[in-house]
């Protein structure tokens, strides 16, 4: 029997807020280059799971391993240095900076010490990479505009492009399609496929848009009340009776 090489291993993670078991014993693994979808009704613990994996909050118990190393509770900075990044459910762009400067700042944040950054070139040598990303995300026509002047959908694209600036090996995306119009949703999916193909990173994607999940993710996890209710190919999970009942609120 062959075993998958260890990449991301989430092991029995639990997070309680008083009596609320937001995440109640979740385990799953993600292989190199894999795209995994996470679905589940509102309040089922998806964001708390991400926050527990990515050091935003300390899990009550359980652990997370990345490439064989225990990363439980590591700070976002330590995780970024190991090639782990994320996007948030809410926008994290610097509204007063241009699109291009947002991308440069996103990669710079984790580069070197403060004095090293002060004396580096103004774009820290990242301008070329930012321009490639701008090209890929079709943001060239707005690259020099302040991010805050753009539509929500475009800011969402910038937000996602920022997560990919440090060339991460694993990215967790929390509802990338939320508030994005349908034409941009398809573009976003194609971009993620392209980034997965060219950069080879793994993605874990929380999303309510089932069409997006079905087309993007060969493997889907459905969370309900803090637990994994079903896991497998998207068509199988979507047709699961317990999953359907959970979505209908029984
Ligand atoms: N900081 C917090 N304090 C108390 N309860 C929280 C906190 N964060 C999340 N919760 C609760 O944990 C549960 C899971 O929330 P969340 O992870 O945001 O779900 P999802 O992302 O699936 O919508 C919900 O019942 C929510 O109210
Ligand atoms: Mg959420």
Reported by name, the CATH topology of the largest domain is Rossmann fold
Q: Classify the secondary structure makeup into a structural class.
A: alpha/beta
CATH top level of the largest domain is: Alpha Beta
The largest sheet, given as strand count, sense and whether it forms a barrel, is: 6 strands, mixed
Order of helices and strands: EEEHEEHEHHHHEHEHEEHH
Instruction: Report the sheet-strand fraction.
Output: 15-25%
Large-scale geometry: globular
What proportion of the residues is helical, as a percent range? 25-40%
Count of helices? 10
- Looking at the overall shape, the CATH architecture of the largest domain is 3-Layer(aba) Sandwich
Count up the domains.
2
Mean pLDDT figure: 90
The molecules bound to the chains, other than polymers, are: adenosine-5'-diphosphate, magnesium ion
Radius of gyration, in Å, reads 18 Å
Terminal-residue CA separation: 39 Å
* CATH superfamily heading of the largest domain: P-loop containing nucleotide triphosphate hydrolases
What is the topology?
Elements: E1 8-17, E2 20-30, E3 35-39, H1 46-53, E4 61-66, E5 69-70, H2 76-81, E6 84-87, H3 99-108, H4 114-118, H5 127-136, H6 152-164, E7 170-174, H7 182-199, E8 202-206, H8 210-216, E9 219-224, E10 227-232, H9 234-239, H10 241-247
Parallel strand pairs: 3-8, 3-9, 6-7, 7-8
Antiparallel strand pairs: 1-2, 1-4, 4-5, 9-10
Helix pairs in contact: 3-5, 3-6
The structure holds adenosine-5'-diphosphate (ADP) and magnesium ion.
Magnesium ion is lined by residues 46-47, 89.
